[in-house]
From TrEMBL:
It comes from the Eukaryota. Belongs to the clathrin light chain family. This is (wild Malaysian banana) hypothetical protein. It comes from Musa acuminata subsp. malaccensis (Wild banana). InterPro entries: Clathrin_L-chain. GO terms for cellular component: clathrin coat of coated pit; clathrin coat of trans-Golgi network vesicle; clathrin vesicle coat; plasma membrane.
Length: 98
């Protein structure tokens, strides 16, 4: 029985050792994934911030271009309305009282 119990103890020890190695590898893999995710997120954040900066500078330019275009169109419309009003003769009717 000593041989059987020693074999069981050896197998149990090997099993615990394999489990400890597996745990260590699992946690190291998790740490590595965490570090790579942090690096990737930093890169994504840098890209996002640069794109946001570019968007806002372009949006500001486009905003003023759109305002300039609207102003020129509105001035043309106002001038057209003014000309039409000037061209209309005023009509007055006189009513006779009986």
């Amino acid at each position: 029985m000593d041989d059987e119990t020693s074999v069981v103890f050896v197998m149990e020890r090997e099993h615990r050792l394999a489990a400890a190695i597996y745990k260590q590898a699992f946690y190291e893999k998790g740490k590595l994934n965490c570090e790579t995710n942090k690096l990737q997120n930093r890169e994504r954040e840098k890209l996002y911030l640069s794109n946001r900066e570019k968007f806002h500078t372009d949006a500001d330019k486009q905003y003023w271009k759109a305002i300039a275009k609207l102003i020129t169109n509105e001035i043309a419309n106002i001038e057209k309305r003014g000309k039409k009003e000037e061209q209309k003769p005023s009509q007055t009717k006189a009513w006779k009282a009986h």
